[in-house]
From TrEMBL:
Gene3D superfamilies: Electron Transport, Fmn-binding Protein, Chain A. One of its GO terms (molecular function) is oxidoreductase activity. InterPro entries: F420H2_quin_Rdtase, Split_barrel_FMN-bd. This is Nitroreductase. It comes from the Bacteria. It comes from Amycolatopsis methanolica 239.
Amino acid sequence: MDRYLKPGKGDGVFNVAVQFLTKLGVSLAGSRVLLVRGRKSGEIRSTPVNLLKVGGQRYLVAPRGQTQWVRNLRAAGEGQLRVGRRVETFRFAELADDEKPVILRAYLKRWAWEVGRFFEGVDHRSPDEVLRGIAPGFPVFRITESA
């Protein structure tokens, strides 16, 4: 599924503020700056993301779908997460749709206040079959190792 929601007017301002604070070392509810090489330009691109921890594993969820950072991460095969001066290079495994419901539920429970509008009426209390139904539109990456 090629679901993609463009950022709204307020999203840019919010993202700049979160990215600025995270670069200073102030993580807002688990925020990180994702650094990934652009698949066309080869230049390093940055965007704020929410790092989710579930069952001892770490995940990145793309609430707006097939975004540029998702496409770049897939092409690059690795990325970096930054908070303050700490930068971690990582590799990842993309989850299959049937693996996503538990992660999407945890993500919504933690960050619905920020990203709930992108889930179009689905929340952390939605049944598993509903979460499975929307799973193809929400890329999820499990961080597998530090590089």
